[in-house]
Design a protein that fits this description.
With 40 residues, the protein is mostly helical. It has helices spanning 4-25, 29-39. The chain is elongated and about 55 Å long.
Length: 40
């Protein structure tokens, strides 16, 4: 019998990896945030 915890651990790991990779692979994210702050 597979518990929900055993299913949740890999899902959470994939979620965290996705967030980490998006920060690396999306170019100019910080520049856009800085420009938006300057407009306010």
């Amino acid at each position: 019998m597979i518990s929900q915890t055993l299913l949740a651990v890999p899902m959470y790991a994939l979620f965290e990896i996705g967030i980490f990779m998006s920060r690396i692979l999306v170019p100019g994210h910080r520049e856009v945030e800085e420009q938006q702050r300057e407009k306010i």
